[in-house]
Amino acid sequence: MLGFVGILVSDPWLQNQFTQVELRSLKSHFTSMRRESGKLTVSDLASRMGKSKVVGDQNLSNEERASLIQSFHPNLNDEVDFEFYLRIYLNLQAHVNAIIGSGVKNSSAFLKAATTTLLHTISDSEKSSYVAHINNYLSGDEFLNKYLPINPSSNDLFEVAKDGVLLCKLINVAVPGTIDERAINTKSMLNPWERNENHTLCLNSAKAIGCTVVNIGTQDIIEGRRHLVLGVISQIIKIQLLADLNLKKTPQLVELVDDSKDVEELMSLSPEKILLRWMNFQLKKTEYKKTVTNFSSDVKEAEAYTNLLNVLAPEHKNPSKLPAKSPFQRANHVLEHADRMGCRRYLTAKDIVEGSPNLNLAFVAHIFQHRNGLSTKTKHISFLETLADDTQISREEKAFRFWINSFDSSMYINNVFEDLRDGWILLQTIDKVSPGIVNWKIASKPTLLLIDVD
Questions:
Q1: How far is the C-alpha of 391 from the C-alpha of 62, rounded, in Å?
Q2: Which residues, 6 or more positions from 203, have their beta carbon under 8 angstroms from its beta carbon?
Q3: 3-state SS of 437-452?
Q4: Nearest Cα to 294, choosing from 304, 284, 285, 286?
Q5: Could you report the per-residue pLDDT of 99-151, keeping only the tens digit for each?
Q6: How do residues 235-245 score in pLDDT, each as one tens digit?
Q7: Is 104 helix (H, G, I), strand (E, B) or coil?
Q8: By three-state DSSP, how is residue 206 classified?
Q9: What angle is formed at CA 309 by the lines to CA 305 and CA 310, rounded to 5 degrees?
Q10: What are the φ and ψ backbone dihedral angles of 41, each rounded to 5 degrees?
Q11: Model-level pTM greater than 0.70?
């Protein structure tokens, strides 16, 4: 088995601005442009980039593009090589981003980041939180103990992750038993084939447990592409933190609904929606009248957090009678309250005020794990007793669920019994196994049932 090398450029900084998918696409465009006349000069770039619609064609005219290129490189007769072309591409994209107001502000939103982001940045706050999580949950691992604890202020995380072992171990923490650890190559010096085996194992397993693995491959992990590696780590940790948000592990969640029909609807919700529903359920016990619909703008003022922690742990509420004068001060009070509860983790006051969606979700999920405020006695116990609890059924359901999830992120399911009821994902699965066997013209996609999270 040969290791995949990919497209390499001599400048490491330039290499790190692109994923392999982007490089392959740009290399194809560059080759196509140069093929027209056998060579490509600076004066040719504007018109040929416009024809191939390489960058911002709807936002730049040929004249604007030519003027910008000339300002970057006045000598129009110079021949263009691939690296020069990449630099021109970056400069043009930065100009287009400035026009449309995109910039890099949102480029660290890993769970939903666009794959075309050019200036790849990462959030230091998120990196530090995830490093602290890894240090905590993998501290006892025999192989990784020589690398842990990782310094959260450095980029050591991406060096440690290069051989794939840390990612495999983290997946097993999130969903125990996903990977047979005997299949992980853990020698001190791995050859390229063993390293590639680890990467393939961790990426396939991450996809199976529900991660969206797009535009990342073996070469990206080897090179320590920070925004891609941290994106996968973010999703793995999210899956771990939301693991208890189902009726199997937390039957007390039935307190959120009124009857068995509502219980069935609750079972069909994603873990994030259940977490929001739980948060709003607790907030209804307070004087807080707003409904929280996300883990970003709706919690930036920290008022929802203040009320949530007061109802969950009133014995630890802030003894001060003076109200906080600003969201930042209120956020600090929230974290002090969480610290007294023993669950201050994942975010800072700055992250709350700025509305970091990943870290706020992690914080709320951690609070739920630590103290969910739900009753151990419930009138719905008779319904829960009818749910299958056989170990063999659970093992087989998990195996089939992972298998279906490994096909495509659009087919992701949380539960085989509930999510396959309408047959649509079954049709998609059959079509994946035997392409073309399903006549989609006569298939009818079921209507999406919208459920209020209040």
A1: 65
A2: 213, 216, 217, 218, 232
A3: CCCCCCCCCCCCCCCC
A4: 304
A5: 544 433 333 333 333 333 344 567 888 898 999 999 999 988 888 988 889 99
A6: 999 999 998 88
A7: coil
A8: helix
A9: 115
A10: -105, 170
A11: no
